[in-house]
Design goal:
The protein folds into three domains: 11-121, 3-Layer(aba) Sandwich (Rossmann fold), CATH 3.40.50; 141-369, tm_1862 like domain (pyruvate-formate lyase- activating enzyme, Alpha-Beta Horseshoe); 375-437, OB fold (Dihydrolipoamide Acetyltransferase, E2P) (Beta Barrel), CATH 2.40.50.140. The longest helix has 24 residues, at 346-369. It has 438 residues and is of the alpha/beta class. The protein has helices at 20-35, 59-77, 89-101, 114-121, 159-163, 171-183, 209-217, 239-245, 262-267, 274-287, 306-319, 346-369; strands spanning 11-16, 39-40, 49-54, 83-88, 107-108, 141-145, 147-148, 167-168, 188-192, 224-227, 249-254, 292-299, 323-328, 375-384, 387-392, 402-406, 417-425, 429-437. Strands 6-9-10-11-12-13 form a six-stranded parallel sheet. It has a five-stranded parallel sheet with strand order 2-1-3-4-5, with helices on both faces. A five-stranded mixed beta barrel has the order 14-15-16-18-17. The protein is built from twelve helices and 18 strands. Iron/sulfur cluster (SF4) is lined by residues 150, 152, 154, 157, 159-160, 194-195, 231.
């Protein structure tokens, strides 16, 4: 007999903040809730229970999480919400402080709190965690998390505090997850972790990403495998021939460098120097011709001098990355660099970030213009009033460029691969006409 006082009805909504790894957690949770016969509301306003999967990475992310919780608390106060659950990284890190500040929240859980959340929302369920992931992305692509946590000692990073040490997922679990997602229509797998390159060291005693990639690439129906979050130090070079040889592994690699000045890299405890960074970039580009390299940098790290920043600008001008992002340094409690304070003024940080992004804008335009006259394979994602938006092999979802496709004769469908003749380019997008279906 259902426990009436528990929920007015059993509709639940999940709000996911932060990174793609959090997205995967929410999708796994949704799979369990679905298996427990709970129904999903399309928005918090329509739900009886709300789960907020928070992010606690840096100031901006924490602020967004807190504002989202406060909005939900207001819904609860207005009697429009029965149960409010806060989970994920911010809650993992600051549960006690949040609990004291936010009495409207019924439960605070950390990361991977699936069974606890199920116990609250479906007390009758026998807690064996069942269910396939319920995708929140368009179902032609999915993020695939191959490990949790991180063993690297980066001075500025609070992720190990929230996610713990590195735990690789067993290969067979990853492959079966891929097969189940292919059955759901997924063609592109965006492989994520805190540090992709560490895969297997804990479980198999050696870095095993190359072997895993081969098995992933052999899964029937997989069209694109894309690698995000590779750590530059101790980079497993044996993955490069696998990337080069396998058609369904994108010639694409995201490798956050964070900085280039050896002085700053040393203080960041990144375990690598400028010279070694340039060397590994050279090795990657030699081994996988035309690979798209993405990276991200932290601006305004406490010991970053004007000279260090100029060195970073010179490096970005010379190395010509294909895709690049930049974040402002955020002083995080309990991290190694916390004691260094946050001496660089926010305006200076912002000005430096703008300067670096302007350099990259020019490089990106140059590289995009070089693609005019070529034909690219494009994964169509959306119909924007008769013009279709898609991504090429060089574009990760949500962070990279887009391709806009004209196809006056033919309706193109989300999730299909087509060949596109590139006719024009801007800093961050390409424009072209439909040629043929794949
Ligand atoms: S590699 Fe460094 S920056 Fe990335 S999650 Fe690990 S500790 Fe944080």
């Amino acid at each position: 007999m259902k426990n009436k006082t528990q929920t007015r009805d059993n509709s639940v909504a999940i709000v996911t903040l932060g990174c793609s790894k959090n997205t995967v957690d929410s999708e796994i949770l949704a799979g369990h809730l679905k298996a427990a016969q709970l129904t999903f509301a399309s928005s918090p306003e329509k739900a009886s229970s709300l789960i907020i999967n928070t992010c606690g990475f840096i100031d901006m992310a924490k602020e967004e999480s807190i504002n989202t919780i406060l909005e939900a608390a207001a819904l609860k106060k207005a009697g429009k919400l029965q149960t409010l659950i806060v989970a994920g990284c911010l809650s993992e890190r600051y549960a006690d402080e949040l609990r004291a500040e936010m009495p409207e929240v019924d439960h605070f859980f950390g990361t991977e709190a699936y069974s606890n959340i199920l116990k609250v929302l479906s007390p009758d369920l026998k807690y064996n965690l069942l269910g396939e992931r319920v995708l929140s992305t368009p179902n032609h692509f999915a993020y695939l998390k191959i490990s949790e946590g991180c063993d690297n000692p980066c001075s500025f990073c609070a992720i190990p505090i929230m996610r713990g040490g590195h735990r690789s997922k067993p290969k067979e679990v990853i492959i079966s997850e891929m097969k189940s997602l292919v059955r759901q229509g997924v063609k592109e797998f965006v492989v994520v972790a805190q540090d992709l390159t560490y895969y297997g060291l804990d479980l198999y005693g050696s870095r095993s990403l190359a072997d895993l990639l081969k098995e992933m690439s052999d899964v029937e129906g997989v069209k694109w495998i894309r690698l995000m979050y590779a750590y530059p130090a101790k980079f497993p070079r044996d993955i490069l021939p696998v990337i080069a040889e396998r058609d369904n592994i994108c010639k694409y690699l995201d490798m956050p460098l964070q900085h280039i000045s050896t002085n700053v890299l040393k203080s960041m405890r990144r375990g690598i120097t400028r010279r070694a960074t340039e060397e590994i970039i050279g090795v990657i580009r030699d081994a996988v011709p035309n690979i798209t390299l993405r990276s991200t940098f932290i601006i305004g790290y406490p010991n970053e001098t004007e000279e260090d920043f100029d060195e970073l600008c010179d490096f970005v001008s010379e190395v010509k990355l294909d895709r690049m992002g930049a974040f402002l340094y955020s002083q995080e409690d309990d991290t190694y660099s916390y004691i260094l304070g946050d001496p660089i003024h926010a305006d200076i940080k912002e000005a430096r970030k703008q300067q670096l992004m302007d350099i990259q804008k020019g490089i990106s335009l140059e590289k995009n213009q070089a693609k005019i006259g070529t034909t690219l394979k494009v994964l169509i994602e959306e119909n924007l009033n008769g013009e279709f938006q898609g991504r090429s092999e060089a574009d990760a979802p949500e962070v990279d460029n887009e391709v806009f496709v004209r196809s006056p004769e033919l309706e193109l469908h989300s999730g299909e691969f087509v060949n596109v003749a590139i006719e024009d380019a801007s800093e961050f997008d390409l424009y072209g006409s439909f040629v043929s279906r794949e």
